[in-house]
Write a structure and sequence with these properties.
The complex is a heterodimer of chains A (215) and B (242). With 215 residues, chain A is α/β, with parallel strands linked by helices. In chain A, 44% of the residues lie in helices and 14% in strands. Chain A has two domains: 144 residues, Rossmann fold (3-Layer(aba) Sandwich); 53 residues, 5' to 3' exonuclease, C-terminal subdomain (DNA polymerase, domain 1, Orthogonal Bundle), CATH 1.10.150.20. Helices cover 43% and strands 13% of the residues of chain B. In chain B, strands 2-1-3-4-5-6 form a six-stranded mixed β-sheet, sandwiched between helices. Chain B is globular. The chains are: A alpha/beta (215), B alpha/beta (242). Chains A and B meet through helix 4, strand 6, helix 5, helix 6 and helix 7 of A and helix 3, helix 4, strand 6, helix 5 and helix 6 of B.
């Protein structure tokens, strides 16, 4: 059978669903998705080399134990996938079994390090279905690992930056920041001005810290 | 320095990996494998809460499979991963199989729903996952990652020892937001004085510190930020990141 280089890019499965390649229709994986996973499957003939579409622009490329042992075909498929699309996150789910595990390090190097795709090993189709189930059900949830971009106050940062200057502790830092509110102002201040705030020795130390070249 | 029998594959030779001093006890076998089998220069220093740094932009954290499977470690993992994402453009997690003591029968790993959902969340958050069967394989992966980053022109190329005025500057630079240890080392090398860095435009910061534009902008902003001292009653300033 000819592997189509294109994939269905605009296929977005509704929440709680996956779009599966027609070839998976009678598989243990899909049975288990429906049974224990409570994930609904929509079958599609035109998925090309992709096995499952998840929402959020990611898709599963399944590599079976036999594929791994046989070698080069799955590599060609993954390379074609990587070259064909940039908009989909490719997640390779591979069967790491007693038979295929000896090939796993080489496969991981190829998939993750060389191609830059994600690789998730599973022991069987059943484990794959459990993993897919979690991927589908997490769509609606908050991801704790996703850094929320909270704008933080920079005031404490400036305060602690000033305290890194040799000879400047908390009290002097406060005094300095009452006159020069930013690090750049402090950096470009004249030594004689600094002297009136923190005394001669510290003023010299601040000047040296900022202005003295390293070499 | 151990003699390297085979010539390095890449033109620029050795690659460097930074190892956190806090994980040195746990990682001693990984470090010795890095040095002796993979010809990697492993430099031990106090890092920003990650186990390894393999390039200017990539941090690698080593996690045992059982730790990842247990809910009790979740909070710590979330904290580490999110703080690393604030400091590094690329974050990798090496998931290492449990070590079995001699004579002990290895128990098969019980894959739980919790484990799967953690993996799914990490993948969705853009964390790169790698599996390893043990310290030797972890070392091989670290060496691979360091070489990959070297091919992409991101290798750690700055001197790892700093002294005198540069040392003082390094401490200051590390207090800046979004600045990792490697970025600070690059800064200490690229700018001729602290004043030179403070007065530099965003592009120069980006280039000199080897970081992304977004991070360079955050540094630029923090150096010009007008601090309101009346808001500062407690100075428990924590290092914050993008």
């Amino acid at each position: 059978m000819e592997i189509k280089p294109h994939v269905l890019v605009n296929a977005v499965p509704p929440y709680g669903h996956v779009i599966a390649n027609e070839k998976w229709r009678d598989s243990a994986l899909v049975q288990s998705l429906k049974g224990t996973g409570n994930v609904k499957t929509i079958f599609e003939e035109e998925l090309g080399m992709v096995d499952f579409h998840l929402s959020n622009k990611s898709c599963i490329l399944y590599v079976s134990e036999t594929d791994i042992v046989a070698g080069n075909n799955y590599k060609r498929k993954l390379v074609r996938f990587r070259n064909a699309n940039s908009s989909l996150q490719g997640i390779v789910v591979a069967e790491k079994t007693r038979l295929s595990e000896q090939y796993f390090p080489a496969m991981q190097k190829f998939v993750v390090i060389e191609l830059g795709l994600t690789l998730l090993p599973v022991a069987s189709q059943l484990e794959a279905s459990q993993l897919l189930t979690q991927m589908v059900h997490m769509e609606g949830k908050d991801n704790p690992f996703r850094k929320k971009s909270v704008s933080r106050l920079l005031d404490p940062v400036v305060m602690s930056l000033v305290q890194q200057i040799p000879g400047v502790g908390k009290v002097k830092a406060v005094a300095l920041l009452q006159h020069y509110s930013s690090v750049i102002q402090l950096c470009n201040a004249e030594t004689c001005e600094l002297e009136t705030i923190v005394g001669q020795a510290t003023a010299q130390s601040i000047h040296n810290f900022f202005q003295k070249p390293f070499f | 320095v151990a003699a390297v029998s085979e010539p390095p594959a890449s033109s620029s030779g050795l690659v460097s990996v930074l190892v956190d001093s806090r994980c040195i006890t746990a990682c001693v076998d990984v470090v010795s494998s890095l040095r002796h089998r993979h010809g990697v220069t492993a430099h031990v220093c106090s890092l920003d809460g990650c186990d390894f740094v393999v390039s200017d932009r990539m941090a690698v954290e080593r996690q045992s499979q059982s730790e990842l499977a247990g809910a009790q470690n979740r909070k710590r993992l979330v904290e580490r991963v999110t703080s690393l994402q604030g400091l590094f453009d690329r974050v990798c997690l090496i998931i290492e199989k449990e070590r079995t003591k001699p004579g002990e029968v290895s128990r098969p790993f019980q894959r739980t729903r919790y484990y799967d959902s953690t993996l799914a969340s990490l993948v969705r958050a853009g964390i790169r996952l790698l599996e390893s069967a043990g310290p030797d394989e972890s070392a091989a992966l670290l060496a691979e990652l360091a070489r990959l980053e070297q091919r992409k022109g991101q290798a750690i190329s700055v001197p790892l020892e700093v002294k005198g005025l540069r040392q003082q500057a390094l401490v200051f630079y590390r207090t800046l937001p979004c600045v990792s240890y490697v970025n600070a080392l690059n800064m200490a090398q690229s700018f001729r004085s602290v004043s030179h860095l403070v007065n530099s435009p965003v592009e120069a910061l980006q280039k000199g510190a080897c970081l992304s534009q977004a991070r360079a902008e955050e540094i630029y902003r923090s150096l010009r930020y007008a601090c309101d001292i009346t808001l500062m009653n407690t100075s428990t300033a924590r290092k914050n990141s993008l």
